[in-house]
Automatic annotation (TrEMBL):
<dbReference type="Pfam" id="PF12849">
    <property type="entry name" value="PBP_like_2"/>
</dbReference>
<dbReference type="InterPro" id="IPR050811">
    <property type="entry name" value="Phosphate_ABC_transporter"/>
</dbReference>
<dbReference type="InterPro" id="IPR024370">
    <property type="entry name" value="PBP_domain"/>
</dbReference>
<feature type="domain" description="PBP">
    <location>
        <begin position="30"/>
        <end position="272"/>
    </location>
</feature>
<feature type="signal peptide">
    <location>
        <begin position="1"/>
        <end position="19"/>
    </location>
</feature>
<keyword id="KW-0732">Signal</keyword>
<protein>
    <submittedName>
        <fullName>Phosphate transport system substrate-binding protein</fullName>
    </submittedName>
</protein>
């Protein structure tokens, strides 16, 4: 009996030591500036985050795998603790973050930028403006003659969630509503179908991939009539920054890693001087405006 108990005790100690050693090795392999990590990214925000990844990997001994998914898919993976890092346009609710609360993991939330949702139409359409109030009544199932059709990226995307919250509805109408999987598919569909109105993340228009540059030329960005001011505003960088454009959202890094890892390092990089300059160049609005150093010269060099 004593021999059996001793063997059980030794086995338990072995498991504990092995687990601690494995966890310790994993943490040693991944620091804030080196190692490998996977980050889930809201698909509507992917282009600018891909730029950040390239610069970060060039500067540090790190490999970051970005996985673009719909907002609902990302939230589901986070809430089940299958992933710990994500870039979204919202934070998790109390219920969604319950598993991390049980494990006493306090999330590190880092604001990165301000994004916008844009409406696009075929370049041959006469209208260059769109009334947000009409969009709301349309998705509420009223005034179905206002649009030939609205085109979304994904039924589970942050864009769909944003519009549903704006219209205070739980389900979109079935008629004249189209959805695909990606923002590029929306742009391609609108570019080939006159009368359709697409709804995409503005980052996909300001930073098109090489294969999409010609397609972008076949669509135009619409000015949106604000519910508050009644003025028509385009989703330009200055209008997003000033708050004049009515469809903006804050991009955040959600970090649920239980130790200081690459998630912390990447978030700090994007929120830092270099990362914020990349945000500024992308057409989005940085969370913090990068510093500009002005040199005053007494003489002008004519050479």
């Amino acid at each position: 009996m004593r021999k059996t108990s001793l063997l059980v005790l030794i086995s338990c100690l072995f498991v504990v030591v092995f687990s601690c050693d494995k966890k310790s090795k994993n943490q040693e392999e991944e620091t804030i500036l080196k190692g490998k990590v996977t980050i889930l990214v809201d698909e509507t925000l992917l282009p600018v985050i891909e730029d950040q990844k390239q610069v970060f990997e060039n500067q540090y001994n790190a490999t970051i795998t970005l996985v673009g998914k719909s907002e609902s898919e990302i939230v589901q993976l986070l809430s089940k603790n299958k992933q710990q890092l994500a870039i979204l346009s919202r934070e998790l609710t109390t219920n969604e973050a319950e598993i991390f609360k049980i494990k006493k993991i306090i999330p590190k939330i880092t604001p990165l930028a301000t994004d916008a949702i844009a409406f696009i139409s075929h370049k041959n359409n006469n209208d260059t403006i769109i009334d947000l109030e009409k969009v709301i009544t349309f998705v509420q199932g009223k005034n179905q003659s206002d649009f030939k059709g609205l085109v979304f990226d994904n039924p589970n995307s942050s864009t769909v969630r944003y519009i549903k919250e704006l219209a205070k509805i739980n389900v979109l109408p079935k008629e004249k509503i189209f959805s695909f999987q990606t923002n590029n598919e929306v742009i391609q569909f609108v570019a080939k179908n006159e009368g359709m109105v697409g709804i995409v993340g503005v980052n996909w228009l300001s930073q098109p991939s090489p294969i999409m540059r010609e397609t972008i030329e076949d669509v135009k960005v619409l000015s949106v009539k604000s519910l508050k001011t009644g003025t028509f505003v385009k989703p330009s960088q200055d209008h997003i920054a000033s708050g004049l454009y009515p469809l903006t959202r804050e991009i955040k890094m959600l970090n649920y890693q239980p130790f200081p890892g690459l998630g912390m390092g990447f978030a700090s990089f994007v929120a830092g001087e270099i990362g914020q300059r990349i945000i500024l160049k992308s057409g989005l609005v940085p969370a913090k405006i990068p510093n500009r150093n002005i040199k005053i010269r007494k003489e002008i060099n004519k050479k």
